[in-house]
Design brief:
This protein is mainly beta. The chain has helices at 5-15, 160-163, 168-173, and strands spanning 18-22, 32-34, 37-46, 61-70, 75-79, 98-104, 110-111, 119-123, 130-138, 146-156, 177-187. The longest helix is centred in the first third of the chain and has 11 residues, at 5-15. It is globular.
């Protein structure tokens, strides 16, 4: 339960694990529009000595949810959104920033069974390191004066498909934690 000591402890640990900021590693890496392309660089920085997610990383997922709206609240762009805690991420979204791992069988196919695993594909955020991700959104922005940009890093201990079926009771109770959130308003020149 959200009011339990365990929930609050996990939430506190997760909220101190990552930092987000708008911008990249060079001064020119800022939010801007050039040739009808909105560029949103985001720096994700690990504040921990281990990778994120850690532990059973193949079961866990941490990701960026990015939403861009106009002044009327109309969604211009979104990535990493889910309908609810039991929803799968849209992994076909090429802009999805997802930190996780995948177990590999001896034939190279993925598996969810630790006993069948012969390798791992790591898509984790390394400890005490930063990564820059740039969203590039093509659109006619000539009729828009201002944009609101919201980015949050979210985390859940189990990918929903791992709990469906035999563990649906756990899936229904699994929380999605917000690790960190940043917001800004961008005035279009």
């Amino acid at each position: 339960p959200e009011d339990s000591l365990q929930y609050k402890s996990v939430e506190q640990l997760l909220q101190g694990a990552v930092e987000l900021k708008f911008g990249g590693s060079i001064v020119e890496d800022t939010i801007k529009i050039e040739n009808s392309v909105l560029s949103i660089p985001i720096t994700v920085r690990s504040l921990t000595g281990h990778s994120i997610p850690s532990g059973t990383s193949f079961a866990r997922e941490a990701w960026l949810e990015t939403i861009v709206t106009d002044v009327d609240g109309n969604i211009i762009y979104s990535s990493g959104t889910i309908e609810g805690p039991t929803s799968n991420l849209e992994v076909s979204d090429t802009n999805l920033v997802l930190y996780t791992a995948y177990l590999l069988k001896s034939d190279g196919d993925t598996t969810t069974s630790v006993t069948d695993a012969f390798g791992i594909i790591s898509q984790m955020l390394p400890g005490l390191e930063s990564q820059v991700h740039k969203y590039e959104i093509s659109k006619d922005f000539s009729e828009i004066d201002q944009l609101s940009i919201s980015v949050r890093m979210r985390f859940r201990a189990f990918k929903p498909f791992l709990l469906r079926g035999e563990h649906s009771d756990l899936l229904a109770r699994q929380p999605v934690f917000d690790m960190v959130r940043i917001d800004t308003t961008f005035t279009i020149p």
